[in-house]
Amino acid sequence: QKEVEQDPGPLSVPEGAIVSLNCTYSNSAFQYFMWYRQYSRKGPELLMYTYSSGNKEDGRFTAQVDKSSKYISLFIRDSQPSDSATYLCAMSISNDYKLSFGAGTTVTVRA
Amino acid sequence: GAVVSQHPSRVICKSGTSVKIECRSLDFQATTMFWYRQFPKQSLMLMATSNEGSKATYEQGVEKDKFLINHASLTLSTLTVTSAHPEDSSFYICSATQLESSYNEQFFGPGTRLTVL
């Protein structure tokens, strides 16, 4: 069993729809949770970073963490074609520890 | 700010040759740099962690004699793939964390596509 599970998709949605992404994990020691966006042939860029269970909002993005279920989510509201990318979840045990990544979900937002 | 560059962006080489990939933090000093490889439609797999002036820490299963890492300064780390073979073809990505940061966010480079013929 992988430490971090993420459905690779692909996921295709019409412009304006809500995109829902999620990851599950098995290591209860994970305390820090991140979502990265990666465009084709580029390095990942950090979108959201959360520590505690609950919701965190940043513009059109909402990150949700449920430590009791070992489940994290990312929601993208009012999706745009420019949101088309691969979204990777990542998590770590401590603030300065190595990251464990999910496989990434490829999202296409159709105009 | 917090820009990481990689050079080259793409390299094609013959089997048996060595390839060096550079990772630079352009506008900050990096305490730690990480090297990942990514196969198509798969996640980033951490290969090694390097700190300036000290030996790199390799992940289990990564051959340190094949993937040589040198972290010469706070802004430069290099990965040398020695005697490359077709199975080493992959997307190699580096990341760096800032010297002063409340949260050690990793800033990623754009990646280097290595193709070994």
The oligomeric state of the chains shown is heterodimer
Looking at the structure, what is the overall shape of chain A?
globular
Number of strands of chain B: 11
The topology string of helices and strands of chain A comes to EEEEEEEEEEE
Low-confidence stretches of chain A: none
Rg from Cα of chain A? 13 Å
Number of helices of chain A: 0
Tell me about the biggest sheet of chain B? 7 strands, mixed
Provide an overview of this structure:
The complex is a heterodimer of chains A (111) and B (117). With 111 residues, chain A is an all-beta fold. Helix content of chain A is 0%, strand content 54%. Chain A is built from no helices and eleven strands. In chain A, strands 2, 4, 5, 9, 10 and 11 form a six-stranded mixed beta sheet that branches. The radius of gyration of chain A is 13 Å and the shape is globular. Chain A starts with a strand and ends with a strand. The model of chain A has no long low-confidence stretch (mean pLDDT 92). Chain B is mainly β. Chain B has strands spanning 4-7, 10-13, 19-25, 30-38, 44-51, 57-58, 67-73, 76-81, 90-98, 106-108, 112-116. In chain B, the strands form two sheets. In chain B, strands 2, 4, 5, 6, 9, 10 and 11 form a seven-stranded mixed beta sheet that branches. In chain B, strands 1-3-8-7 form a four-stranded antiparallel beta sheet, with no helix packed on it. In chain B, strand 4 (30-38) and strand 5 (44-51) form a beta hairpin. Chain B is globular. The model of chain B has no long low-confidence stretch (mean pLDDT 90). Chain A binds chain B through residues 4, 6, 8, 36, 41-46, 49, 88, 95-96, 98-99, 101-104, 106, and chain B through 4, 6, 32, 34, 41-46, 49, 91, 93, 95, 97, 103-111, 113.
